[in-house]
Amino acid sequence: MSVYSFQTEDTEQQIIRETFHLVSKRDENVFVETLDKCFENVCELDLIFHMDKVHNILAEMVMGGMVLETNMSEIITQVEAQGKMEKSEAGIAGAPARAVSAVKNMNLPEMPKNINIGDISIKVPNLPSFK
Amino acid sequence: MALKIVKGSIDRMFDKNLQDLVRGIRNHKEDEAKYISTCIDEIKQELKQDNIAVKANAVCKLTYLQMLGYDVSWAAFNIVEVMSSSKFTYKRIGYLAASQCFHEGTDVIMLTTNQIRKDLSSPNQYDTGVALTGLSCFVTPDLARDLANDIMTLMSHTKPYIRKKAVLIMYKVFLKYPESLRPAFPRLKEKLEDPDPGVQSAAVNVICELARRNPKNYLSLAPLFFKLMTSSTNNWVLIKIIKLFGALTPLEPRLGKKLIEPLTNLIHSTSAMSLLYECVNTVIAVLISLSSGMPNHSASIQLCVQKLRILIEDSDQNLKYLGLLAMSKILKTHPKSVQSHKDLILQCLDDKDESIRLRALDLLYGMVSKKNLMEIVKKLMLHVDKAEGTTYRDELLTKIIDICSQSNYQYITNFEWYISILVELTRLEGTRHGHLIASQMLDVAIRVKAIRGFAVAQMATLLDNAHLLTGNTQRNGICEVLYAAAWICGEFSEHLEDPMQTLEAMLRPKVATLPGHIQAVYVQNAAKLFATVLRKHEGETDSQAAQETSQLLIDRLPLFVQSANLEVQERASCILQLVKYIQKLQQKNVEVAEEVTALFAGELNPVAPKAQKKVPIPDGLDLDAWINEPPSESESEDEKPKVVFAKEEPKHSRSRHTEVDEKELARRREARKQEQANNPFYIKASPSSQKVYDAPGVEHIPVVQIDLSVPLKVPGMPMSDQYLKLEEERRQKEKAERKKKEKKKKREKRGKERKADSGPESEEDITPAHQVDIVTEEMPENALPSDDDDKDPNDPHKALDIDLDNLLSGSSSRPLADSEKLPVRTHRPEVLKSPVVDRDSESIPQETKKKGGKEKKEKKKDKEKDRKRSKEDKKKKKKHKEVEEELLESQPEEAVQSEETKEVAAPPTSTSAEASDLDFWLSSAPVPPAAQEVTAPSSAAAVDTSSAAAPESEPDDPKDTEPEDMKSSKHKKKKQKKEKEEKEKKKKKRHHHHHHHGDAGGEDSVQNGTVEEEEEEPLPPMSNYSLLAENSYIKMMKEDADQVYDIQGNHQDESKVVVSVIFENKSDSFLKSMEFNVLDSLNSKLQRPEGAGPHDGLTVPFQLPPGVSNEARFVFSVQSIVMPQKLKGTLTFIVKSDESSTHEKLDFKLHFTCTSYLITTPCYSDAYAKLLESGDLKGSSLRLEGINMPFHHLLARICFHHHFSVVERIDSCASMYSRSIQGHHVCLLVKTSDQTVSIDAKCDEPSLLGNVLDEIKQTFSKC
User: Fold this and answer.
1) Strand residues in B10-86 grouped as ranges (E)
2) Average pLDDT for residues A20-39, to the nearest whole number?
């Protein structure tokens, strides 16, 4: 967890790279793949803008610095279940906020076209993601 | 209502959320700090509102800011508020923030205990999950103590999602609250076999993590992990287990043998690099632990090296690095295998990653041999030239020097080459390591006498071309070599061809720009050269040359007299006056050379770097004692030397130690240093000139022919390469000569085929170019060995070094004392013994009251209950046993043998005897012990530790039954025995732990108790092996049957006793078909395999080659244990020699003492007190007169021979405890005064007690 302690945007990419290497060395990049699935094509900016989400995903994988789960489908199941719970809690009250958030996200600045994280090259779609 | 909520959220939706914050920060790159501070102000406003959603949003943003490095600790209370929200969404935000921001110093953590407890027991599994995740990050000792019990309950939760998190977090709890380990361990162990793979993996994780730090406590889990290793497909779990085995094998070499096969299989089959790496790593650890015993594992090593090669060749830098790292481990034990991959390692020097290059360098260090040193160094020199960046180049330089100088220049065959290398290294620009090169030059020139002539010539050239070195101010570091050059030229000036030229070079005006300490050496050595020149010209009729020399000095020295450096000034003026005086004498034609030379007479001997430190302090000398009365503080202030010339602040470079003495010493040292620094008359030691002048009379210099065929070159031109060439030529020549000789031999011995020169040269074939005499460094007499083994006292894992073996459920387990139980939810939990909590409980030590200890056995007066439970246990154990059987069968090689062993010995797999279980599990290792021992007798001890716990007889035991003519051979035996005894003394401490666990526990408790304080007398060696019977063929030693197992069979009041017997073949013949048989009594019966008749013997599962011994175990079932038993038995065997085979037999009597039914069981004092109070026990007592041994020896003997443990000891009074295999408590109160020992004893079975006391009496009547 503390990997993220003192990051700035400038070093963000580098930290992701390092994390990727650290995690991939052990987990055969379960982390990156899981992120990829949870964000439907993960990109660098996803990680910055949704760092809470990243944390929550990571929490299903690593707990207190120890590996908790390496089975990706299990991780995704749990993450999705929690996401659903969140949505049901927000219910009707959450709807306008989500709409506003979607509008705000329409113009993400400087969306890069192609991002390299480690060996995985992720194609960034031209359209901003609506989430 | 709903409308209101919607309205509220519409108000809110234009608040900044996390994404807005991130976007904002990205858009304010120029004034980020300012932007963030306004954001923080907003957040503070939001936190003041009542709406929890607003607060949560604010906290979420704070979490991000915290990651950017902003302090958000001021919001800790708000975080707690958000954590307490009933909505999962907010709760999660709160816990996330807490996990990022909270630490041990956060005081609001105290407020969270109840909230966390509530969340842990929430019906929503994700509430529980999120609380566990958060807690894992900020758990404090208080939280750990208060919540340990709740978390332990969660370990058995119905949902695997919760179970795995609860299991995993226990590790953190253990770290913060070590007391929880013992009570939680049984359940944790249970989770290793959880049906859910995630939970299983978590348990493996935790136990492996614990075991990594204190492996010995987890040795007994090896069979279980072995099973997991062979069955699991989860790479992560496999990696963890394999790592753990890597830590266990050094403790138990037999384990390694078992591991090799499955590990090599994994290595062959896995595609995961990480797993491959761990397998290789553990195989290496195994091979290292076996390296003395198993000479033929070259196949495994080869496999490892091959696979590592793949790792190193991989494009992934991490794998490359790890591959090199593992290689370096193999290198230590199997250098040859690694050396064949030299090409690959050298390639890595070209890698763009510096850490990989450095690893490769490290490897090269270990790979050099006499044969390849020159070649490797040549490659390194090339890299030096290419290297970019001074750091790496300096690293290369130091490595080259390290490689060449390692183990006292072991691999250097040609020192001329080495000197040339050093000279070439001086061409490095901007290196910091000039002094290193210099000290090497000095060291070689001083210690290798034969090289001095060459070295002096080279150094003279260096001095002559000093301008090349000093020309650039940036190259300051390298001018240090001039220090060495000047000194060598001066000291060994008799080798100089043209001392006059060198003298001239040393007195050039440019020298004055060199650092002071170098100038000082120049001046001093100029004087030495002067003496040499004078002597050279002495006797010549024309004294012109000598006078010119004097004049030269007189002309040039004044420059140095004006030096700002005191040392230089001092020496220069001294020498100048001397020379002026000499000049006067010269003008009078007086011969002065003799006297001038005498100034510098004497040989210099190198002194080992730490020689000074290692001078032992003579008896009675207290270095800290004041010689005179200590001056008062103020006085010492006043007497501080006045700073006249230079101001030098005392440097506190030394780390500050807490110890006052250290500080004081350091202070004095500093003071002394300062005083010396300010004292112009003190000759300071420079780092490379720590030489001691002593005149032992000129030692004889070995006469050596030095091949000076290599012309001297101006530095700047590499010439080491030519040496390489020459060396090759020389070796070729030698080879050819050898070939000739071989051929001659061949011709002589035509009959025998010989492979001459087919293989590469071996190390020994290479003879050094010249015989060198490497003078060893001097050490003071009785130098003390260095001892610097320090462990980190702050390691939290130290507290977790807890013995867990005898805890695992089973009636003979060491009970959890009340004080060990986890605190249950109380308003204010007690940490230590808590009589309040337990007042209502029955006072028997086995009892565990807590619900967490449900599955732990409660041996109560209520026997019915006990039986039921033991049945359950049996089931479990059966399962366990089956598993082991599977294990055994999975190894076809050993199947037959292990089957037999099983029939004979099959110890019930009670968890209470984990250690012996392990022994059994391990003893069925695939290698047949007999054959093994023949091939590698020296390794026998390591290979089979159980038989290595060498037979040692009590001095009084053997009834001599053998015929007279065997006496002589017996003498021999005795000698061997003695040796063995000595060996065993050494070994005992180590081995005891695994093999006689009960005893070890007892000893430990003695040592851990008060006895430890009396270190003055070491415990005499004790053995629990006694002679059973022997004849001229075989000797049987019986171990006290201390490995006892509790009720297992169908008859419920029957106990099993395992007897270990060591069979030693004393004859020169092969012993086979051994059959062990006893005449059963009503009470005690030998356990025979199913289908065997009651009088059938048991086949001993091994054969004995001459001189070999091995151990077998026999299980007896015993009904009543209150009386000692004697069983008559016979061993029949076939003696097979070359000519004939005869049938022989040996009768023996097996004696089961009551002591042998006791199991060492530690007991806590509060449990002990309750036991005595209960009034169920009947007393008896014993007096021993004339006991002439220290009290702690007495206790140790009782512990060792009678399986007691010390509960408490106060002065000369101790309470002791033991339990019988049928659960009788035996309590002793031992007092001593004036050689009289009185033992008051209590036990719930009087006749057992009486017999035990008799046996104790007997033990002490022997000594």
Assistant:
1) none
2) 64
Percent of chain A that is helix, strand, coil (3-state, to 5) = 65, 10, 30
Q: If you classify domain A29-93 with CATH, what class do you get? A: alpha beta
- With beta carbons under 8 A apart, name residues in chain A contacting B26: 9, 109
Within 8 A of B137 by CB-CB distance, chain A residues are 1, 64
Q: Quick one: pLDDT at residue B841?
A: 41
Joined together, the tokens standing for residue B523 give: 């001046």
B628 burial level (CB within 10 Å; 0-12, 13-18, 19+): exposed
Q: What is the DSSP code (8-state) at residue B818? A: G
Does the distance separating the beta carbons of B20 and A25 come in below 8 Å?
no
Q: Which residues of B429-452 are buried (b: 16+ CB within 10 A; e: fewer)?
A: eebbbbbbbbbbbbbbbbbbbbbb
What CA–CA distance (Å, rounded) separates B951 from B954? 10
State the pairing for strand pair B692-693/B1158-1159. Answer: unpaired
Secondary structure of residue B1242 in the 3-state scheme: strand
- List the 741-780 stretch of B: residues with Cβ below 8 A of A: none
Say how many C-beta atoms besides its own lie within 10 A of residue B555's C-beta. Answer: 10
Own/partner pairs for B328-332, CB < 8 Å, 24+ apart?
B328/B359, B328/B362, B328/B363, B328/B366, B329/B281, B329/B284, B329/B285, B329/B288, B330/B284, B330/B301, B330/B304, B330/B305, B331/B363, B331/B366, B331/B367, B332/B288, B332/B366
Contact predicate A106/A128, CB 8 Å: yes
Whole-angstrom distance, CA of residue B323 vs CA of residue B327: 6
Tell me, yes or no, if B70 comes closer than 8 A to chain A by beta carbon.
no
Q: Which ranges of chain B have pLDDT less than 70?
A: 1-14, 290-297, 470-476, 541-542, 632-664, 672-721, 735, 738-796, 805-920, 922-1025, 1039-1054, 1263
Using the beta-carbon criterion (under 8 Å), do A26 and B274 form an inter-chain contact? yes
CB count in 10 Å sphere of residue B195: 7
Dig out the tokens for A60 from the structure: 């299903």
* pTM, rounded to two decimals: 0.50
- The answer to whether residues B1208 and B1214 touch, using CB atoms and an 8 Å cutoff, is yes
d(CA B563, CA B917): 80
List of long-range contacts for B300-308, beta carbons under 8 Å, 24+ apart = B300/B260, B300/B264, B301/B330, B301/B334, B301/B337, B302/B337, B303/B264, B303/B267, B303/B268, B304/B267, B304/B280, B304/B330, B305/B330, B305/B337, B305/B338, B305/B340, B305/B341, B307/B267, B307/B276, B307/B280, B308/B280
In contact, B183 and B852? CB cutoff 8 Å = yes
Q: In this structure, is the dihedral angle defined by the CA atoms of residues B1218, B1222, B1223 and B1228, taken in order, positive or negative?
A: negative
Given the DSSP bridges, would you call strands B1213-1220 and B1158-1159 parallel, antiparallel or unpaired? antiparallel
B89: nearest CB among A59, A81, A86: A86
Residue type, B240: K
Express each pLDDT in B580-590 by its tens digit.
999 898 888 88
- The C-alpha atoms of residue B890 and residue B713 are separated, in whole angstroms, by 70
Cα–Cα distance, B1086 to B1059 (Å, whole number)? 10
ipTM score of complex? 0.70
Interface test with A, best of B18, B173, B319 (most A CBs within 10 A): B18
**Of B853, B1165, B983, B943, nearest in space to B190 by CA:** B853
Integer Cα distance of B351 and A81 in angstroms: 47
User: How many Å lie between the alpha carbon of B346 and the closest alpha carbon of chain A?
Assistant: 25
Q: Which of B20, B92, B201 sits opposite A104 (nearest CB)?
A: B20
Which residues of chain A have a CB within 8 Å of the CB of B235?
28, 70
Task: Please tell me the distance in Å from A17's CA to the nearest CA on chain B.
Answer: 13
The whole-angstrom distance between A32's CA and the closest CA on chain B is 17
Helix axes B109-120, B125-138, angle to 10 degrees: 150
The separation between the first and the last C-alpha atoms of chain B, rounded to the nearest angstrom, is: 93
Task: Establish, for the pair of chains A and B, how many residue pairs have beta carbons separated by less than 8 Å.
Answer: 135
